Amino acid sequence: MEVLFINSKLGYDYQIEDEGKGISIISSEGNLSYFKFREAPFREGPLYKNEKIIAQVSFNSTHFFYVIEQQKQLISVQQKIRDKNHFFDRHIEIYDKHLTINKTGIASMTLYIHEGRKRLLGKRVNGLLSRKQQNEWYTMKLPIKNKKILGSIKYNNKAIFITYYPNKEKLSISKIFLEEIDARFQKVTINNRSNIEFMYENENYNFDFRKVEKDHGIKVRGSKAKLPIGIVLKLKINKTCFYIYSYKGKNYLTCCPKKAYGIKSDLKVSFVKDTVIIYGKYSNTYRQSTGEYDYIYIKGNDKPISSFRRLSTGRGKSFAFAKIPIEFLTDTEEIHRGLYLGNEVEKLYPLYMKNYLKEDFEVFARKKINSNIVIFRGNVGEGTSCTILPFSEEYSLSNILKQNIASLTRKKGDRAPINLYFEKFSKKADESAIKVFDKVLAENTLSKNYFILDKRSKDFPLLKEKYGNKLVKKYSLKHYSLIYNADHFISTEFSNHLINDRIFINKLRSKITKTPLIFLQHGIMFAKPIENPMAAGFHKKNIKINLKKVVISSKLEAKEFYKVGYQPDDLLLSGLATFDYPVINDLKFYSYMPTYRYWEEHLVYENRLEETSYYRDIISVIRAFEENNLLEKLLIVPHNKFADYIVDHFPNYKENICTNPSEALTLSKIFISDYSSAIYDAINRGAYPIFWWKEKDMLIEKYQAQPSLNEDTAPGPIAYTEQELIETVLNAERRGFQLEEAFIDKYKKINNFSDNKNTERIVDYLKTEKII
């Protein structure tokens, strides 16, 4: 189940109720209407006249539930669509004979591309109102010589365009969403997948928002009438905010507020007792605008939290200062909140500070407040964010002193290479990094190699006895000195885990991001699609660290990395070190590990776990095992971000929950998951794998990409229902947990290595590159 659309434009919100059995719709006035999914009557056909969709819920790719506003009343209906349905819809336009669009339901349709009698594409579009899959491309060849729009679907300020590009031999399906439309526009029209037309002061203009910006932005075409100086029109397209303004007699479109508003900013920030002071120069090049946008906003607040004060006349007007009480910043459950400037009634653009280092995430100021650290920092959009994190040791006065000493005493000149090894948060030592480190120490090398580990780790005393001064205590002066002198990092995690998942200390972060990393990985990248938005930071073009090499396990896995910009030279085909001689204890449990679902994280943290598919998946598996007298064998393995919440919500099943995935892998006779790469580690240890894909369609829609792990490539049986899951478990028991030969062959394509020499191959590479 998934909520595809909620009509927030009309002020509606929603809440899933009764463990997923119903939904409450909350109006802008706070009125609540509850609907049970099963009680909604079935309806065929499109919307009736004057009906508006308030909510759309998907149960699967052919079954939908709707809440509809009908004569100021809310009603619910459900539809099971059939592709053969073809309802008339005035919003659909066909411009080419190769395209057919069938309206199959209220907000669903199927489009087909034909060449003669041959069907080249059949595509269901179920989320017409949803943001998902905004740009899709399909390779095909049509007898069309020039770029052509084959058809369109338009609904209010949303549109889908089907466009063919003969030079690329590709078909594009593009969604356009217009939001936050400036009230001063008299009319806005979507012409095609890149061109928007608007009317202002009875003049017609248009622009191509997909063009690359030049010095002042994208030229606005149409009327030659220039916008008045200081007037800026705003329009959000597909979540990106665009600004339309005039400069030297020409009209431009830009994504950069600095250009549109002529912003000049040289602001600084300081903490003074229980107040934040922002001060310095801040002006707009359009003189009449300076002082107009002096109100400070923070994400989540509709009203200003402060405003700048200025000298009244002359050049002094550009000097400004503002005070913000600390409680205005700390009264929130959010980690990151952007700061903005605007007039008295609305926020208009980000608050820009003086960026000395010209880096993303530069820290402007920080202070410990109770048990938290409050940080003012730059963000990706060059604006300013306030970040509130639980206070951790690296921000303590003694640690800052150690960091400064380490930075000042950094050694220069010729010396032996220094390499640092670590695992997640430098708090554990049971994966690939410790295996490679151990192997390197057994070699005769000229390098100096150290493993970083928190002294609170249960493994610290034993490993300290084994490795002596080669095992370095996290947060020690030696730890920081080694960071500043390190030539390479060798880890299962990205470089920041040498300290924490987020580092907001300028010098330390700069050194860590610049040091080359040999990324050992902690799992095979062949489960969740690598193109999913949550993995965008892992795409080659977005990498903020010095990623020298990534360890992979097969040519099949390499193809995943090629999809997001990696080249063959970026990859090391050696197999994961952690797969060598795996630890295996008493294999007696049937473990279930649902994959992390980033889109539900806020619901979990807001104590609304029961509204999540993560919760429903777990409870359905528990009940299936309980009903079949298998509960004592079941082990639920939640993601570490959700672990505490799962334990709290399942008090009657505490004995069935293991919050340590590494430990669960050593105990699993059967390993069940949807798209967790841990399943390959489990197979390597002898577990029987089962892919639990009851929510497969929903997960793929949320990932916004097709996983390469599918019915053809999965190295284990697939279950889509609770009954199939239990039957597969019982079949595994009957087989003595021996995996079928066909699945073993598929696994060998994903993991090419089974000779326990992965670590040796990695160390050979380190030698060849003179890293060790």
Automatic annotation (TrEMBL):
One of its GO terms (cellular component) is membrane. This is CDP-glycerol glycerophosphotransferase family protein. One of its GO terms (molecular function) is CDP-glycerol glycerophosphotransferase activity. InterPro entries: Glycerophosphate_synth (IPR007554), TagF_C (IPR043148). It comes from the Bacteria. Coiled coil: none annotated. The lineage of its organism: Bacteria, Bacillati, Bacillota, Bacilli, Lactobacillales. Pfam families: Glyphos_transf.
